[in-house]
Amino acid sequence: MAFQGARVPLNWWQRAAVVAGSAVGAALNPARADLVAALGETTGGFAFQRMLERMERSPEGQRILAERPRVTSSAMSRAWDLPPNTFGAAYAQFMGSRNFSPDDRPPVRFLESEQLAYVATRAREVHDFWHVLFSLPTSVMGELALKALEFQQTTMPMCFLSVAGASWRLKPHQRDALFREFIPWAFKAGNSATDLMCVYYEQHLDEDLEDVRSKWGIIPAPALRKK
């Protein structure tokens, strides 16, 4: 599998500079996917290693590592033709209604091991599947709730730092709901779900959305209240 862009080796002080700069930038603007990605790569080495080890122990995870599927617009094109009750159709509606393209994800740059770089790429590319499965919007509140769930599933420091650093952007009542309602939900849902990095999502697109939620132990998020 070919990765876009060149991976960039960093010494300790360069890594520290990237961590500091991306952490501040991502807290100020959580929509900066490149900064969030850089923070994840430079702080998540141990977490990516643990994800890799879990995938190597899982039959479905082993197939993912062997075949290295990519979530790209061409690979996902058939989702737009699936029946409306299916997981794939829900994904297509989610992406299409927001004018998102799976090709817009920034490439992995700061992980030198190709195997870990693929795991990081996979984690990045299945993020939108998780939005669909857990019924979370792409608002700041929705992203932070999903980051809390991702932390429960992956232990990536970036997920914790994103919640801690960007929650200040919420209105007081939203911040209160995040910590009283959505973070407890995230830890319960993350613990209930199967290991989401070991799911070959592309092979389940034509299955009923509620069936895959049940099969994978998915607990959808509480509805976001509009105020």
From TrEMBL:
Chief location category: mitochondrion
Top-level taxon of the source organism: Eukaryota
Locations listed in the record: Mitochondrion inner membrane
Annotated membrane topology: Peripheral membrane protein
Coiled coil: none
Pathway linked to the protein: Cofactor biosynthesis; ubiquinone biosynthesis
Metal-binding found in the keyword field: yes
Names of the cofactor(s): Zn(2+)
The keyword Signal belongs to this UniProt entry's keyword annotation: no
Residues reported in the UniProt entry to bind Zn(2+): H127, D128, H131, E143
GO cellular component: extrinsic component of mitochondrial inner membrane
Enzyme class: lyase
Alphabetized GO MF terms: 4-hydroxy-3-methoxy-5-polyprenylbenzoate decarboxylase activity; zinc ion binding
EC identifiers of the protein: 4.1.1.130
Keyword field: Lyase, Membrane, Metal-binding, Mitochondrion, Mitochondrion inner membrane, Ubiquinone biosynthesis, Zinc
Catalyzed chemical reaction(s): a 4-hydroxy-3-methoxy-5-(all-trans-polyprenyl)benzoate + H(+) = a 2-methoxy-6-(all-trans-polyprenyl)phenol + CO2
Family named by the database record: Belongs to the COQ4 family.
Self-association state and partner proteins as the record states: Component of a multi-subunit COQ enzyme complex.
Role description: Lyase that catalyzes the C1-decarboxylation of 4-hydroxy-3-methoxy-5-(all-trans-polyprenyl)benzoic acid into 2-methoxy-6-(all-trans-polyprenyl)phenol during ubiquinone biosynthesis.
UniProt protein name: Ubiquinone biosynthesis protein COQ4 homolog, mitochondrial
